[in-house]
Amino acid sequence: MIDRVSNQKAWLMVLPVILLVAFNAIIPLMTVVNYSVQETFGNNVFFWEGMKWFEEVLRSERFHASLGRQILFSFTILIIEVPLGILVALNMPRRGIGVSICLVLMALPLLIPWNVVGAMWNIFALPDIGLLGRAINGMGIEYNFTQNPVSAWLTVVAMDVWHWTSLVALLSYAGLCAIPDPYYQAAKIDGAGRWQIFRHIELPKLKRVLTIAILLRFMDSFMIYTEPFVLTGGGPGNTTTFLSIDLVKIALGQFDLGPAAAMSLIYFLIVLLLCWVFYTLMMRSESNTS
Amino acid sequence: MAEITLKAIRHSYQANPIAPSDFAIRSVDITWRDGGAYALLGPSGCGKTTLLNIISGLLRPTEGAVLFNGVDVTAQDPVARDIAQIFQFPVIYDTMSVYRNLAFPLVNRGVSGEEVDRRVKEVAGMLDLSEMLNQRAVGLTADNKQKISLGRGLVRSDVNVIMFDEPLTVIDPHLKWKLRSELKRLHQRVGFTMIYVTHDQTEALTFADEVVVMHEGDVVQVGTPRDLFDRPEHTFVGHFIGSPGMNLMPCQIVDGKPIVGHSEIPVDRFFADHDKGNGLEFGIRPECIHLDPAGFPVSVMRIDDVGRYRIIRAEFEGQPLQILVKEEELIPSENLRIRFDRSSIQIYKDGWIVDRGVAK
User: Fold this and answer.
1) Contact A24, A16 (CB under 8 A)
2) Which of the two ends of chain A, N or C, has the fewest CB atoms closer than 10 A to its terminal CB?
């Protein structure tokens, strides 16, 4: 037997990563923690406030309202984007020139910067000069996203679906392409119909990529800021003020650093918690469905 | 169950095939007897899987017809043909229990509940899956999963043929033997026609009553394992079957006798002259060469020990020659002389045996 020699030098190898994480995550996060427990005045004067800001935020109706809108928004877009993405992926060609054309077309929306998407949709949907806005009004349906909350919501949701369904579709497409032919051949021989092939072969094989797609889309949509900010600025009224928009209003508009910091941390924990719940649920259903 | 006939099958994966090399299947005419156990043997890329998919209906051949019991089924899909196919790796439905996996093909065909239950339990019994019926199929080991794939074929009492496409590829070596003998036993019990695709000669020879050897899109020989060994009809069969394969040396025929280099080899039959030796080859299995002090001299290059046998790698008339001798046999250290077993000598012209179809 050879005695194991302990060698602590390996820690030096990890050091760069620790430093990097410290500078880009831990230290900024700690400054937020610092703000969240104190009242901040000019000239770096601080007063200890303890949990006051957290209690205030958690009790605030304004926070509840934007959290509610945020959850409603995220679930709405997930319910639309995931099935739509799968449907698109199922209908994408598997070979030939069509594959490249489809992939490029699908990838295009993903390459457009968020604020450009917001600006595009803003102009596109303007009731007086926008193509979409005029067309809808021309059909006799009253539509004005700058004044009518329903119109504003529909526009924000449509914009997100337009921007991000491609991501779900591309991930699903990759997942579908990874299913070996014999699965389809066996299903054919077993006499399975189209729905059964989807239900018993494609969907189970897509589970992992869909988990990733749903997590990504959930996190992204839960933190959405730029697009609705450019499109509606959170209005009309507060009807499209989601958590990030509200947070920026508090932090930079009103310069209430304490409540904004507390809200940031609560926001962060909610995202973390929901992602964990999603992930656990999906992984569990993978290991014991019958 | 059915007798399956392939008539002048040609298949190409290209749109406008012209050259012979454009065809994955060049020309295949073959009849599979009802209830036979066949192996379809050949190296990777020789067209085995293509031929299998043509029989099952997953592929439609470019030319030719597929007949089941004399009825043309070329245009029918796999469901209409009532076949079962087991693939290289186990195909199971992850979402279902073992029971529902086995029941799936029956349920899809509208079989009544009691009948499904009876058949699933019967097949599970045959395959030793009874204990696992309520488990999820996804958690099982590869060999049990492959048994489920097989079971989905067996539950249907009306299958015409069960086809295996290298079904043991992902199975651990120690389980391969077990599964293979179970397959053989199953074949005797259920009597379905079975076609087993493999590139492994041991698998083919142990499973099948008759072996179909494929080479570059052609069927080069159909025969019992014995036929393939004793009388390979094509040089490819000669060197593909057997370990090591058949020795092949260029030769000439003079007065009905083969001449390799300067040596006239004694044979037990008369070979007709074939264009004075262009493309002629002399074939002899390493097992059929014996040490004989009165025979032809060979120079020994190397001797390999392969357990119960030794392989002498020698040169005869400037041509490499492999000789298989038993472990206990003494090999003289110099001046090694050999004799060829007269009845085991075969002569090939352009790859094909010269007295093809003549006396066996």
Assistant:
1) no
2) N
The token pair that represents B234 in the structure block: 């094509």
Peptide bond into A236 cis (omega under 30): yes
**B247-250, strands of its sheet edge to edge:** B247-250, B280-284, B346-349, B352-353
pLDDT in tens, A180-230: 888 998 888 888 888 989 999 999 889 888 988 998 899 889 988 888 888
The 8-class DSSP code of residue B342 comes to: G
Per cent of chain A over pLDDT 90 is: 29
Pairwise CA distance, residues A76 & B205, whole Å: 61
Which residues from chain B sit within 8 angstroms of residue A189, using beta carbons? 56, 58, 78-79, 83-85, 105
- Is A6 inside a domain boundary? no
Strands B161-165 and B83-86: parallel
Written as one string, the DSSP assignment of A244-278 is HHHHHIIIIIS--HHHHHHHHHHHHHHHHHHHHHH
Query: Smallest Cα–Cα separation from B169: which of B206, B128, B198?
Result: B198
The answer to whether residues A137 and A143 touch, using CB atoms and an 8 Å cutoff, is yes
C-alpha A186/C-alpha A257 separation (Å) is 62
Chain A residues in contact with B89 (beta carbon < 8 A) = 180, 182
CATH number at residue A162: 1.10.3720.10
Q: ipTM value, please give it.
A: 0.74
The DSSP string of B11-73 is EESSSS--SGGGEEEEEEEEEEPTT-EEEEE--TTSSHHHHHHHHHTSS--SEEEEEETTEE-
Judging by DSSP bridges, how do beta strands B247-250 and B252-254 pair with one another? unpaired
Give CA–CA dist A155/B341, Å, rounded.
Answer: 89
Buried b (16+ CB within 10 A) or exposed e, B201-225: bebbbebbebbbbbbbbbbbbbbeb
CB–CB contact A188 B58 (8 Å) = yes
Name the amino acid, one letter, at B201.
Answer: Q
Structure-token pair, residue A33: 């923690």
Domain count, chain A: 1
Query: What residues contact B58, with CB distance under 8 A and at least 6 apart?
Result: A185, A188, A189, B78, B85
Length of chain B: 360
Q: How near does any CA of chain A get to the CA of B178, in Å?
A: 24
Residues 17-56 of A with CB under 8 A from B: none
CA distance B158 to chain A (A): 13
In a domain, A88, yes or no: yes
- How big is chain A, counted in residues? 290
pTM for this model (two decimals): 0.76
Residue A216: give the domain boundaries. Answer: 77-240
Q: Predicted confidence band at B153 (pLDDT cuts at 50, 70, 90)?
A: confident
Q: How many CB pairs lie under 8 A apart between chains A and B?
A: 59
Contact B119, B74 (CB under 8 A): no
Quote the CA–CA distance of B16 and A122 in Å, as a whole number: 53
Q: Is residue A197 part of a domain?
A: yes
The pLDDT of residue B277: 58
